[in-house]
Here is the input.
Amino acid sequence: MFFLKDLPSRRMVTGYADRFEGVDPAKVSDALALMRAASVLIRDLESYFAAHGLSQLRFLTLIVIDREPERTSLSVHEIADRLDVSRPVLTRTLQTLHKAGLVTMNANEDDARSKEVSLTKAGSDRLEQVLPGYFAILDRAMSGDGNDLN
Amino acid sequence: MFFLKDLPSRRMVTGYADRFEGVDPAKVSDALALMRAASVLIRDLESYFAAHGLSQLRFLTLIVIDREPERTSLSVHEIADRLDVSRPVLTRTLQTLHKAGLVTMNANEDDARSKEVSLTKAGSDRLEQVLPGYFAILDRAMSGDGNDLN
DNA sequence: CCGATATAGTTACCATGATAACAAAAGGAC
DNA sequence: GTCCTTTTGTTATCATGGTAACTATATCGG
Here is the structure.
C-alpha cells in the first residue's frame, strides 16, 4: 500500500528526478498517482467486503471458482495458478471460507494429495449479494471523483 | 492488494455488469487494471526497499521528514497528518526506524505529550542511497512494460 | 482553580500478507 | 520394485496493516 496523502508536485518530483539520469518526472508522477488511487480504492473495497463477511482475497477466490466454465470445482493449485498469492495464504483463506460454509473441500479420487474446492449455495449467494456493490464501487472510482487519473 | 493474475476480458466484465444498472464495463475494466498494475508495482517496491533495510512506509516516513522546508524535525502527529496510516502503525514504524538508528526522537519542550522526530545522518544517507533505484522503478513501471495502462 | 473534554502517543490484540521448512503422494530413471 | 525428484498442501513464524482501549498532558468553560 501507498500511504502518502498529498503527492509531491510535479515541480518537486522534477527537483528530485533531475539528479538521476534517464528518469522522466512525468512518469514518476503518474506512478505515484497510480499507486495512490489504487490504494484508496483497495481500502474502500476491503471495507465494503468486510461489511459482508468477506475480504478482497476471499471474494476473488469465490469468483475464480464461480467463473470457471464447465467446472464446478477447482483444486487448490488451480486456484493458486489464478491468484497471485503465496500458497500458505491460500490455504488459510480456504480454511476461513470453509469454516464460514461458503466452500466445500473434497478429496480428489485420482490424486490423494489434491483437494477439490467447490462453492456451496451460500457461497454463490454471497457472491451474488456482493457483486452489485462491487461493480458500483469500481465504476464510481473511475468516474472522476478526484483521483487525478482522468 | 489485488491478486487476480489474469483480468477478466472486456466481454466477461460486460456480461457481469449488464446485470446491474448504471455500471460502465469500460470503467470497471479500467479499475481492475489500475488495481492490478499498482499491486504489482507496490510489490516490486516493497521488495526493493526490503533489500535496503526499509519498507514502503519506513521510506515514506523518512521522505516526509526530509522534504519539509524550514524544518529539521516533525512531531509524530504531523507525520500522521501526511501519511494515511493508523497511529499505532506509525508508532511502531518510528520505533523500528529509531532502533535502526535512522531517526532520533526527542521530547518537545513546549508540550510534554509530543515528540520531535528528526533524521539522523544515517537516515539521510539511507534515503540518498535508495532514491535513485526508487525513481528508476517508478519510471520503468510507466514505460509500457505490459501493465495495460498505456 | 477545577472538572470535563480534546489531543498525543502507546499498548494489546487481531487480520492478512510473506518465507522456510515440512509431510505425503505421484512420477520418472534404472 | 526402488530411489530420487517433483508436486500438493500444510504448519510455524514473522512483518505489517487495522481497531479498541489506555495513559498522560493540554485546553477550555465556569
Summary: The domain at 10-141 of chain B is CATH 1.10.10.10 (Arc Repressor Mutant, subunit A). The longest strand of chain B covers residues 103-107. Chain B touches chain A through 48 residues (CB under 8 Å).
